[in-house]
User: What shape does this take?
Amino acid sequence: MLKVISFFQEGCMACEEQDPINREVEAALRIRFETINPLKERSYIDTYLLQVTPTLLIIQDGQVVERFEGVVHREQLEEAIRRYL
Assistant: This one.
């Protein structure tokens, strides 16, 4: 099973830049990203060793198979997700 998690925090300029890219990829691939603020759900920080936001994780069968820290361009993100669809 494929899962994409987008970690963000409020007031993060890079997160605001990433959000519309995520929405475009969701629409293009007909998938849903799980969006989480790790400052409100702190267990994710340790679980995924989060250091920056935005961080995007592509998880397949419970394992992180791709990780992006900072803003990732649509083409790169879409290509990475397609590898696991």
